[in-house]
């Protein structure tokens, strides 16, 4: 089997030599899915996984805009339309200076499996730009979004490709993108998700990724007759996903002791309660400040410059910032300190070595494509509401979200339970996602 995986990866590497993040995402899937394919007659000899590794379409375009000093700036925009076997392309847009083809292809590849897990009819895609929103004025952000959409609009649509937010793209950016799309197309449709509540958005979409990550942790704990109540939780990031993971974990009786950004992390031994989180939300979403400013209001907390929060003792860790933010040394520290649940809010935050370390110790470890699927699932619910031209209540959406997260968990158990009873959520999520997409691809022929 190892030689089959190696042979497969050699083929993928030949074509994508300079794309380390993409190759990392593919190998993790290949290791678990290739043995499964070998055991299933219907998938044999169809090269399905290889087909899944090739995007259906890659768009790359110039994004020129004018900054506040009058200078013309040029960024690069992308949209990866990865797989539409089970529905229109669906996935977020990332605005961050590190954005490149490799990062967006890894995210689009993960999105295909994740979207299949949600049980909703959504294919996978991802996009963005190497634009740095940090320290840009509102006007600059708006002009950038308008320029970005002035090209993207020709390639997307409510039945073709439906982008949403990701790092650096929140409610404000979705508003500017939507406004430009509407102007260019002269139609009001559900072409983006994460919209404002008064213009087609869904209640709970802002909360959904973070809440879903906590719901998934709850499901994992329940397999060992345990709950989140009273647990100490470390969270990285302080953006959309981190904020709502913190909110839900706290509401359920856990104590969240860390949050971070790219400058370092804060540790608050007493826990980041609702009032403190409201301060963080104001700081990050409105003032767009740094996490160290938490100490101006809560001086008892500590700030660790340039560090990640994984050396802090905890029961549960939720990486909610970015890819490859939990290295093997971090994993060892988490394990040594007794952490026994890792529920990923971010996409691929743990390096392969870190994942293997968690699994070797048989702790409950959920990969992002399973545990953070609540965001895109609720985007799917936003699309349904837009199509039906109705609005569900907060309770209705939250109930559906909880049901979807619990379904994903069940599917991971179905495909990931080992002979000794250990639930390998990586294997479970990869195979469950693969089966759904592969069956649709088989039915649709070689296209
Ligand atoms: N927004 C969503 O609905 C979903 C987001 N995700 C993933 O969750 C993660 C966070 O996304 P959002 O919260 O939406 O973005 P955001 O832009 O609201 O927040 C990102 C956070 O990560 C931190 N961060 C970014 N790069 C970093 C770095 N190099 N080192 C340390 N910290 C860094 C930022 O300071 C910020 O706190 C990403 O991996 C994203 O792909 C996954 C599923 C859905
Ligand atoms: O809501 C969406 O369409 C995308 C969410 C996303 O980008 C993700 O799941 O990584």
TrEMBL record:
Residue ranges of domain Glutamate/phenylalanine/leucine/valine/L-tryptophan dehydrogenase C-terminal in the record: 202-445
Top-level taxon of origin: Bacteria
Active-site residue numbers: 126
A Pfam family hit: ELFV_dehydrog_N
Residues binding substrate: 90, 111, 114, 165, 379
Molecular function via GO: glutamate dehydrogenase (NADP+) activity; nucleotide binding
Keyword Nucleotide-binding: yes
Keyword Plastid part of the UniProt annotation: no
Record-stated family: Belongs to the Glu/Leu/Phe/Val dehydrogenases family.
Protein's UniProt name: Glutamate dehydrogenase
């Amino acid at each position: 089997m190892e030689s089959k995986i190696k042979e497969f990866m050699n083929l993928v590497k030949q074509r994508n030599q300079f794309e380390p993040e993409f190759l990392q995402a593919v190998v993790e899937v290949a290791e678990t899915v290739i043995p499964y394919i070998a055991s299933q007659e219907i998938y044999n000899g169809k090269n399905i996984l290889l087909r899944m590794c090739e995007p259906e379409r890659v768009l790359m375009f110039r994004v020129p805009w004018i900054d506040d000093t009058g200078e013309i700036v040029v960024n690069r925009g992308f949209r990866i339309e990865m797989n539409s076997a089970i529905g229109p392309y669906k996935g977020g847009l990332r605005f961050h200076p590190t954005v490149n083809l490799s990062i967006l292809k890894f995210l689009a590849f993960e999105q295909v499996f994740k979207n299949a897990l949600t049980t909703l009819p959504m294919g996978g895609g991802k996009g963005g730009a190497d634009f740095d929103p940090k320290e840009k004025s509102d006007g600059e952000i708006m002009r950038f979004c308008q320029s970005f959409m002035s090209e993207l609009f020709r390639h997307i649509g409510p039945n073709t490709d439906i982008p949403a937010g990701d790092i650096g793209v929140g409610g404000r950016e979705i508003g500017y993108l939507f406004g430009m799309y509407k102007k260019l197309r002269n139609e009001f449709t559900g072409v983006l998700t994460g919209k404002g509540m008064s213009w087609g958005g869904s209640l709970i979409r802002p909360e959904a990724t973070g809440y879903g990550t906590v719901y998934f942790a709850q499901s994992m704990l329940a397999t060992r007759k345990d709950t989140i109540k009273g647990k100490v939780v470390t969270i990285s990031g302080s953006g959309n996903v981190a904020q709502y993971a913190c909110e839900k974990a706290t509401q359920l009786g856990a104590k969240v002791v860390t949050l971070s950004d790219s400058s370092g992390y804060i540790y608050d031994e007493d826990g980041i309660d609702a009032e403190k989180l409201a301060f963080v939300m104001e700081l990050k979403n409105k003032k767009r400040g740094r996490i160290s400013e938490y100490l101006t209001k809560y001086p008892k907390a500590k700030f660790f410059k340039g560090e990640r929060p994984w050396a802090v003792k905890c029961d549960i860790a939720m990486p909610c910032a970015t890819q490859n933010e939990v290295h093997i040394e971090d994993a060892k520290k988490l394990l040594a300190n007794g952490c026994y649940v890792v529920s990923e809010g971010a996409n691929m935050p743990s390096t392969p070595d870190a994942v293997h370390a968690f699994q070797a110790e048989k702790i409950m470890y959920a990969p992002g494509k399973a545990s953070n699927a609540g965001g895109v699932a609720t985007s799917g619910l936003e699309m349904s509401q837009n199509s039906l031209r109705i609005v569900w209540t907060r309770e209705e959406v939250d109930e559906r979200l909880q049901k979807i997260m619990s379904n994903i968990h069940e599917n991971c158990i179905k495909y990931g339970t080992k002979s000794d009873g250990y639930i390998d959520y990586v294997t479970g999520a990869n195979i469950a996602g693969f089966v759904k997409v592969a069956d649709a691809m088989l039915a649709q022929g070689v296209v």
